[in-house]
Amino acid sequence: MPSSLLRKDSLHVAAIMDGNGRWARARGLPRREGHRAGIEALRRIVKAAPDAGISTLTVHAFSAANWNRPAEEVADLLKLFEQYLDSETETLVADGVRLSFIGRRDRLPANLVAEMERAEAVTEWGDVLSLRVALDYSAREAIIAAVKNGVPPGPDVDLLIRTSGEQRLSDFLLWECAYAELYFAAKNWPDFDAGDLAAALAAFHARERRFGALPQAAE
Ligand code: FPP
Is residue 212 part of a domain? Predict the structure, then answer.
């Protein structure tokens, strides 16, 4: 089959937005400012995603293990998520972005859950990009829940990007990444921009995905 037929331009890209804390520390700023800058990076990437051939973007915002961080940082993060929803929902609607959340909701503050549900309802008709935000998320828990319910956990990921030089999956989309290409960027997440996204996608398109079959030349 010609490779052009194998090329899929409605990609599911997942991102582990790592390095906010180090970005802040390098500037003598509180970690909160790193997360704030992380939100700006997310805005840039969401804007750039559709033209880059991405139809689904799943980002890791808060893992089930992140409850182990100091209470002040957890509170800062939860407040930032709420502010993001408050300030961003209108733009998401205008840009055709459908926002949804994966992960547990029962441990999150009720007002945040209400904002999440409102944002999901308001953006429901977005058909340019599906933005999925993982909040209080654990892939292991999601797999167990999916098995109990008899449904697969979620759509396959084509490309997983992790920033800040870390090379781990950290309990993120373990099932969905079964055949994902992995891309590790050295930059911290707040510095990641549309050019870096384009570089990640260029690397992705240069790879041969075999899904367990033989290389094309051997067929
Ligand atoms: C990892 O950096 C980042 C997080 C735990 C939070 C990610 C959240 C954002 C980027 C905010 C935007 C999200 C939404 C949905 C509004 P780290 O704190 O582990 O950094 P470090 O490893 O350098 O300490």
Answer: no
